[in-house]
Amino acid sequence: MREHKESPRKDSAAVCGLNCGECSAYIATQKAPDIRKQLAEKDGINEESLRCNGCRSQKRCLCSEQCKMFDCAWERGYEFCHECSDYPCAELKLFRIERQSKNEPLFNRKKYFTL
Predict the structure, then answer these.
(1) Between the CA of residue 113 and those of 40, 82, 84, 106, what are the distances in Å?
(2) Which of 9, 39, 20 is nearest to 107 (CA)?
(3) Range of the domain at 45
(4) Whole-model pTM?
(5) In a domain, 7, yes or no
(6) What is the DSSP letter of 49?
(7) How far is the C-alpha of 40 from the C-alpha of 26, rounded, in Å?
(8) For residues 100 and 51, what is the distance between their CA atoms, to the nearest angstrom?
(9) Residue 56 contacts by C-beta under 8 Å, 6 or more apart in sequence?
(10) What's the N-to-C CA distance of the chain in angstroms?
């Protein structure tokens, strides 16, 4: 028998489908502030830039604040990108290529913070 896996709550999932609970910035904010400090030092960025309460929260990390997909979905009135007739758009395709998986933790935070 297949085990039932609960779907992520909307407030813990980004418009692109990323599960915030899998993101290093979110995890470091919610569960491991010492790791957030280490990540910031490693990448040469301000620790506060990594503080994130989720892609749909008032306090998002810098990469989430600059998210073109979030802005696009909001402007079109969608909760998730897959609701759009343009899905998957070029921006989402590029994001998935760069991230390799929609649930993979950030692997190149510095790139997002220097855009």
Answers:
(1) 10, 26, 27, 12
(2) 39
(3) 15-113
(4) 0.67
(5) no
(6) G
(7) 13
(8) 23
(9) 10, 11, 12, 13, 14
(10) 47
